[in-house]
Amino acid sequence: MLSRTNFNMMNKLFKDKVIIVTGASSGIGEAIAREFAANGSKVMLAARSEEKLSMIVDQINEKKQEASFIKTDVSLEQDCRKLVEKTVEKYGTVNILVNNAGISMRALFKDVDLKVLHTLMNTNFWGTVYCTKYALPYLIANKGSLIGVSSVAGFHGLPGRTGYSASKFAIHGFLETIRIENLKNGLHVMIIAPGFTASEIRVHALTATGAEQGTSPRKEKRLMTPQYVAKCVPKGIVKRKRNMILTWEGRFTALFQRIIPTVVDWSYYTAMSREPDSPVK
Ligand code: NDP
To answer: Is the pLDDT of residue 2 over 60?
Structure first.
């Protein structure tokens, strides 16, 4: 829970700021949208499931907080353009873009249909590129924040997740370059890497054929909560952080993969092979 002082501070800093959150119909994105709305921001939620978005926005509005939604498939450039245009039409600008929409996979590369990798890149990477392209002029004008929700899989390869890791590595390279290109503009760029977080991601993860996995191999209730991740985002923005890695394992990875990469390889191999029904044996 936030103390009253922290709440007042967050409320002051984020009041009336315009935030776009992609992938806001579930899990981490939904929690981030609710968190910013509670801090007094004007939040635009984006995802494909209109019904879920509508329900979440109604619940936010019932608390006299400001939120709207636009049905968006981030893998489509025209949807991302429309998302930004409609947000500006409604709220006047964009202060913060949270590129959160994402899907995962679970299959060894030797078995996987390449369409799975295309789908992952189109959603995770190209979705980030498209939304950023159209929001960037507003973010720069406001000295705002450009956020990418990544993963430890963006710091080191995760077996059984080639497309997922590749998409997160690509996001890192993309966002890092945007940060450098805008060093003199006051744009803030942050990559946040949650740990395993309770959400729908593993249920919707694509298997070798492209079908959804349908269940989670993890005990979801024991994982990090989306609400915890959501509380970290505004804190990172206030501190203008470049990276927020939310677990010790993640920090270990980011630090040691350059020093003792083989040890990190084996620890990833061992950890992922222990998952029930893991394709990594
Ligand atoms: P969820 O599956 O719960 O949420 C994913 C969100 O992305 C949903 O709102 C979904 O909405 C949206 N989405 C998927 N495809 C598209 C698309 N083409 N266009 C628009 N929206 C889309 O998963 P999480 O909350 O866990 O995932 C959010 C982010 O967090 C992802 O980027 C993920 O990589 C990252 N992450 C998650 C971790 C975890 O363990 N949960 C760990 C580390 C990082 P809809 O289906 O309605 O379009």
So the answer is: no
CA of 26 to the centre of ligand 1 (A): 7
Give the number of the atom of ligand 1 that is nearest the alpha carbon of residue 101. Answer: 7
Q: How long is the chain? A: 281
pLDDT tens digits along 95-125: 999 999 999 999 999 999 999 999 999 999 9
Atom of ligand 1 nearest to the CA of 72: 20
Annotated catalytic residues are 164
Q: What is the pLDDT of residues 151-173, one digit of tens each?
A: 999 999 999 999 999 999 999 99
CATH class of 4-248: alpha beta
The two structure tokens encoding residue 110: 């030797």
Domain ranges of the chain: 4-248
- C-alpha 58 – ligand 1 centre gap (Å): 21
DSSP designation for 202: T
| 260 CA → ligand 1 middle, Å | 31
| pTM score above 0.90 | yes
Burial classification of residue 205, based on how many CB atoms lie within 10 Å of its CB (0-12 exposed, 13-18 middle, 19 or more buried): buried
